[in-house]
Amino acid sequence: MKKITPVIIVSSLDVQRGGVTKASIKRANLLAEHHKEVIIITFLYQQNHNQIIQQLYKQKILNKKVTVYNFFEDLKPNKSTRKKKRQDQKVEEKGFLHFPVEDKKTEPSYRYYKDGLYVKYKRFNPNGSLKFIDYMDESGKRKRREEFNGDGLLVRTRYMDNVNNKPRYDQYFDNKEECFLSVHVNPKTQKEGRVVTFFDNPREYSSIYDCHLGWLNTILNNYEYPVVSSELRRFTKLLVNVEHENIKKIEVLHTSHLSKPYSNINNIKPGSHFLFENAKYLDKVVFLTNEQKQDVETVYGKQQNFTVIPHSTYIKDENILKGTVPQDAKLAVTLARYHEDKRLDEAIHAFKYVIEKVPEAKYYIYGYGEMKDQLQTLINKLGLQNNVYLKPFTSSPQQAYKEAACSILTSRQEGFAMVITESMAVGTPVIAYKIKYGPSDIITNGTNGSLVEEGNREELAQKIIKVMQDEDFRSELSSNALDVNERFSEEKYRRNWLELYQ
């Protein structure tokens, strides 16, 4: 029997993770139970990549049989030699005056002056280690940034465009703080362009894609029978063009393939169009929902290598399912990144209607992201400070669901929306906008949850109000919601993926 090596290509890994990362880690852990080695390949630069991976192992989020390769880390010529920390990694620095930045208390930051000039800016991590230093020109404009990892080593220097203050050239450093890679960056689009490597046989690449492809071929040639899955469209071209005589190629669609407004099945994203036009070069294309597969087949025709494997439900703590977690009949929750695609503003606006009928109602939004301040501003503007709360990311999602009367989904698009099954698995019904894709495959309207036409905030509010006020209705939805544990069982999920990898 062939000794295959499962290989999963994702952008990055992290302890706080979104749906694609969570699904990829779960599958890697499953495959690690049945294969000698499993590989995860990542391409995103992360300042503290090694610390993140060790944390994933330490917290038992990732099986130690899973080996993680990162493009920037693996290319380093010197990975073990440690250089002594620089003197400028402390707050106090001889010869400089420094002043704290008042609005950066969670990540302490300071401005530094010398001879009457503002010359640099330092930001520190919460644990006190240096995160980065910005250097200024004579006019006080940023000219370059130096970034440091958790060991205090310089890992990247970014040179700024003097017009728009965006990166235009990046240098990457190994553990001797010697530059091994440089990347030209378009300061307007922030797209990476020409790449030069400075180790072994130095080489210039016309694009970072060419460098990625060469590196990926090198990694895969270490394995006799690699079964490689791409989890994001940005890696489809790599998957199609990678060369290996014994390779098996799998594409997994975690997100919608449609362009805005994500409802016209003929309006295909460019990356997804490339995928479906080149699907014949792949062994399998895996969809998470039947609805998405059917929409693609309507446009591109049926293909034998198309298949559907939905995500599964999984109860980590059976006590949650048994009802030992107290439920608040006046609480609604959402677990999501603070990102525009999640459209959390829709749910917040709808909650303004909810409290008119249920003044004591509460809405907890557990998450993280760049829109936190914007969402808090909206909450304040609507006068919902005592009803709607932005909560930190939670590592116990099903407990958060179990405590609530319902959960809310208002995303623009999803590939499956694991948050729906996670909520229903503990008997908490979901009130969701009827988007592509996920809700219609999982929720039966009025039976185990509610489907609402996109943008109808008043109807969304009415559904929330009914669940909160009608105990019998809430109990019925809750009881019926539990059927996801059978429909999307862990056993079915495991069987389907293990068969696919054989």
UniProtKB/TrEMBL annotation:
Gene3D superfamilies associated with the record: Glycogen Phosphorylase B
Chain ranges of the Glycosyl transferase family domain: 318-481
Record keywords, A-Z: Transferase
Pfam families linked to this entry: Glycos_transf_1
Gene Ontology terms for molecular function: transferase activity
Name this protein carries in UniProt: Glycosyl transferase
Source organism of this protein record: Virgibacillus kapii
